[in-house]
Specification:
Layout: H1 2-30, H2 39-62, H3 72-91
Helix pairs in contact: 1-2, 1-3, 2-3
Length: 96
């Protein structure tokens, strides 16, 4: 059972990195540093959006509009950190 929890914690950590990469990439696209007309950039952008959008969309729908500022990645990261702490502090020590 601890191996399953270790895998869950690893997946959550990797997903955290994906969310950070998507946020940085969206800034670079917004400031026209990288161009989405490039096929490689478009493929990476589409793949990362396919990974993050199912969890970010419901959070965006619940949050009020902040005049173009997207706080949904921050909220999702906070939820992931909370879940990691709950697993590490309460579930992991009680599993044999």
């Amino acid at each position: 059972m601890r191996a399953v929890l270790d895998v869950i914690l690893l997946v959550l950590q990797l997903y955290t990195y994906v969310i950070i990469i998507v946020a940085i990439m969206s800034w670079l696209i917004a400031f026209n540093v990288i161009n989405v007309y490039n096929n490689v950039v478009r493929a990476i952008w589409d793949a990362l959006n396919a990974l993050t959008e199912p969890l970010l969309r419901p959070i965006r729908n619940m949050l009020p509009s902040f005049s173009g500022l997207d706080l949904s990645p921050i909220v999702l990261l906070l939820l992931i950190f909370l879940l990691q702490d709950v697993i590490a502090k309460y579930i992991y020590p009680n599993v044999f």
